[in-house]
Amino acid sequence: MDYDPEYERIRNDRTKRGAYELDMYLSRKHDELLANTLEHGSYKKTISLIIVDGFAVEITEDQANALRSANGVRVVEKNQEFPN
């Protein structure tokens, strides 16, 4: 995600309450981005990542392209797949 001053402000609060607030803020932010960009029910968010303000989501290539052009998105990368 692009630079977010609210994320930086909350991240600097190293208390247990601050960690909870950051988790909730980012999860809500990521959910809103997905809901505003992709069709409801067409994706599965698996995790929000606090340390980098990012998330993992199961989507199609077309959906990845839509996210790439969404306001506030810095980069969309495909997970690396390892052979069994």
Task: Report on this structure.
With about 80 residues, this protein is of the alpha+beta class. Helices cover about 45% and strands about 15% of the residues. It is built from three helices and two strands; from the N terminus they run H-H-E-E-H. It has helices spanning about 5-10, 15-35, 60-70, and strands at about 45-50, 55-60. Strands 1-2 form a two-stranded antiparallel ribbon. The longest helix has 22 residues, at about 15-35. The protein starts with a helix and ends in a 16-residue tail after the last helix. The mean pLDDT is about 90.
Strand order of the largest sheet: 1-2
Oligomeric status = single chain
What is the 3D shape?
Answer: globular
Tally of contiguous helical segments: 3
End-to-end distance: 31 Å
β content, as a range?
Answer: 5-15%
Largest sheet: 2 strands, antiparallel
Features of the shown structure:
about 80 residues; 2 strands; globular; Inhibitor I9 domain-containing protein; S8pro/Inhibitor_I9
